[in-house]
Amino acid sequence: MVGTSDVIRLRSGLDTLMALDDKRGGHDGLERSALAGADEALDKLSKAASQRIRLRLFSIAADYTATAAWSALDARQLDRTERHLNRALYLAGMAKDPIVELRVWNSFAMLAHQRGHHPQAVEAGYAAQATGITRRDPFFASLAHARTAIGHSNLNNRQAAIRSLGYAQEALNKATDEPRPSWMAFYGPAELTAMTAIVRDRIGDSAQAEAASHQALGSIPKQFRRNRALATTRLALAQLHQRDVDTACYTASHVFELMQGDPLPGRMRSLLGDYYRDLITLAPDADVAREWGDRYRSEWSRA
């Protein structure tokens, strides 16, 4: 029979995958491993010792599938992301697990953003806010509000974006320290500050975005290498949008050094592409822009 010890073992595999994601970002190997973990959990359903164990197995399968979706999203494999998210949402429902449901809606909001479907991103943010866990734990509510703020900023809805950021901060202030799933380890004051930088830059407050990015980089833990690289790119964008081209290019070059030794995940490559497009629009003839462009193309081909 499958019991608690099997559940604990399966759950520990998720922690291992999330540690790999923090360091390297999404990639095919991580996605395949996550799907294999989901299959293993589902294969054990018929031998579950109790209904409680069945629900926990469904929850683990949902979490592994959501991890596969996240890996695909970070690698910008968007169609695969959607398939995985739909299945993860079904499994979370079978598990009666509102935490995984929130995780899935958070990823749906990011997927909609990657596709440029910003109204859908806002709706996914609202769906995340409506999950049961947000009423019990303000930490999760904070993430849902922050994700919604980014959606509003992409629609240039300044008032709604700032209001959502305020809700996110209020909720985070109410959160207490307690055990949470490893996929939520990235979130906290540092990540909210990094998300604030995104919102501020998109609504035209680039100086405030730069300040928020500096603050985030001062507190994002070192093991979140991919997140530090993304925050560094956001800092470079905020500097560039203030026409500080030399500083922006110097900052953006640090991204390659942070990720040295591993290919750049697709989402990071896309964000660097956004930076390069803005760079050649604002300073097409600057020597530093040409030099950065050469470095960018070299790193792109290496990855």
3D architecture notes:
It is a single chain. This protein is mainly alpha-helical and 303 residues long. It folds into 3 domains: 1-96, no CATH class; 99-184, Serine Threonine Protein Phosphatase 5, Tetratricopeptide repeat (Alpha Horseshoe), CATH 1.25.40; 188-303, Tetratricopeptide repeat domain (Serine Threonine Protein Phosphatase 5, Tetratricopeptide repeat, Alpha Horseshoe), CATH 1.25.40.10. Helices cover 78% and strands 0% of the residues. It has helices at 4-24, 28-43, 51-74, 78-95, 98-114, 118-129, 133-136, 138-154, 158-174, 189-202, 206-217, 225-240, 245-258, 266-282, 287-302. α1 (4-24) runs parallel beside α3 and α3 packs antiparallel against α4. It is globular and about 70 Å long. The model has no long low-confidence stretch (mean pLDDT 91).
Shape label:
globular
Broad structural category: mainly alpha
Specify the helix fraction band: over 70%
Using only C-alpha atoms, the radius of gyration works out to 20 Å
Span between termini: 45 Å
CATH C-level label of the largest domain: Mainly Alpha
Q: What would CATH call the architecture of the largest domain?
A: Alpha Horseshoe
**Mean pLDDT figure:** 91
- Fill in the CATH topology of the largest domain: Serine Threonine Protein Phosphatase 5, Tetratricopeptide repeat
Query: Helix count?
Result: 15
- Total number of domains: 3
Major sheet attributes: none
Which strand-content bin applies to the residues?
Answer: under 5%
The CATH superfamily of the largest domain is known as: Tetratricopeptide repeat domain
Low-confidence stretches: none
Order of helices and strands: HHHHHHHHHHHHHHH
Tally of DSSP β-strands? 0
